Amino acid sequence: MSVRFTIPTALCALLLGLMATAQAGFLGQYEVTFLCTMGVYMILAASLNLVNGYMGEFSCGHAGFMAVGAYVSSIVGVFLFVPDQVFGQPWLPMSMAPLAFPIILATGFASAALVGLLVAIPSFKTRGDYLAIITLAAGYIVKSALENIEAVGGPRGFMGMKKVVLGMEEMFPMSWMLLWVFGGVVFTVWVLRRFVYSTYGKGVTAIHQDEVAAEIMSVNTNKMKLVAFMLSSGLAGLAGGLYAYLIGFVNPASFTILRSTECLVMVYLGGMGSLTGSILAAGIFTILLEFLKPLEQLKWVAIPMLLIVLMQFRSEGIMGNRELSDVFPKLKRFYRFK
Hints:
By secondary structure, this protein is mainly alpha-helical. It has 14 helices and 4 strands.
């Protein structure tokens, strides 16, 4: 009997190891929060790489899709399980939270994908700088809309979703957010790998190479863009939902152009068109943020500077468009065990 060894299976093994380590008490709250933050960044980087890397477009409004997922997931969770002044009494008992939590995240995924659909339609006839302007405008539209909706706190923000996580931990003492976040990472990597190597994925890479030639070869480029944008946006919404429940509070100021800049730095740091590079860059970037914390606001100068330096000296990123097995061919022998 043969067992296929891939990135998703490796991440599953890593997840089991992290859960066992946390359950044994070797990971404190700080370490768990740090790892969860890293996982959220992994999802963000991988999702944006689908559009900016594999499809060759330039999107810089990823924070807007993340905000949609964060707010929708938070509202659904509070509506179902937490008594609130706006939404009233909860509809479901807290005991059902572990079962309903994947559905809560799915609502954030679906809502962000729907917004991605609205952004994808104007992108049919635009490329490059024009697409960047459209996605940037979409991000500001989402942020401005959230600031003017008093039901979700307006500019003050929205909170209450942390009670859902605390409720799950009271019923079953374990690191639930570590489970959900790295479960989301495994799901993201699995979905993107399946998509990139599917017929749709070949169409997306064909658009990257030459959109006109792809159309001549009967590739429905509009449909490919639509699917890629929706999947990328939905995964950003998934990351937003996980971020909201990890922090326990969201406000529009959390999803500015600086958040989109972080996503861009990770994509270009890891390498456009490399899933391995996105995962690796997200880990490096999270560690870098910890080292830059003493700089406080100056870190927002250092992070864009990192992107400038990267473009000057290694524009292809750490991995380029290669995967780990392309850099180390001997690893391919471990892809199948007898």
